[in-house]
Amino acid sequence: MTGPELAEAGRLLAAARRPVVFTGAGMSAESGVPTFRDAQTGLWQRYDPQELATPAAFRADPALVWGWYETRRRGVRRALPNPGHRAVAAIAARLPETVVITQNVDDLHERGGVPAPVRLHGSLFAPRCSACARPAPLPSDLPPSADPPEPHDGAEPHGGAESHAPEAHDGPLDPPACADCGAPVRPGVVWFGEALPSAALAAAVEAASGCDLLLTVGTSALVHPAAEIPLVAARLGAPVVQVNPVPTPLDAICAVNLRGPAGEVLPALVRAAWPDDAVG
Ligand code: APR
Question: Which end of the chain is more exposed for a tag (fewer CB within 10 A), N or C?
């Protein structure tokens, strides 16, 4: 990242009224949330995430897939929003028509101050029945005396309640049964080979079509159809600013490429856009 590029991106952001912020796994990397492409730890080392995140894997071994997502969910609950999440919230506070679209299944945008991001790939905190789709309660992993955390409440204090939870089982785990039909409950995420939630996809396409700046952060832009969202904006003439430490297939369509980690680049971008504000 160089000064002139940051200044240009700051100028574009300051001039925007309807920006879209489009985020991927790199957004949460500095919070310690592993991506699918990171090495797995513990007993999960011998599994390929891309093979666990499929409907076929869940049908073949529900306990394996449910246990893996429970491990991921607990890891996310221990993670905290990083300065990049807070900078995105600062942009949304400064520009109320901002739309945040995320491919992430964590809740760090919400806890970082963006109450309702458009979720293209679902959420770790919204399990549902694998047969009848009835929403299911989250498994309790808190001591009985503690208040259970509300999913997406946006107000969890630092060091969230789960940090006091007892050490939970890590490994294959039978999913709960649906209270209605008894079928296994599944994670509320979009698996490889599944359609994206149509309302979220429509909202994302509409926002990208009408935006006057698209800021893409921490995505490899390899997984479709989500990866098309920046292309929609670019095709309709909106400048695209990318934040990523490495080049991606989006480089060529970007007005500015800011090479660096989101947790450093985004606060610097907010300061460049609004040097007189205290935010960021
Ligand atoms: N700041 C910004 N970007 C980062 C950082 C960081 N600190 N660290 C890594 N990155 C970048 C990487 O260079 C990479 O380009 O984040 C990107 C992460 O890419 P992926 O792991 O492919 O994540 P994503 O693009 O979100 O993947 C899309 O694929 O893994 C599935 O369903 C999952 O939603 C996910 C989808």
Answer: N
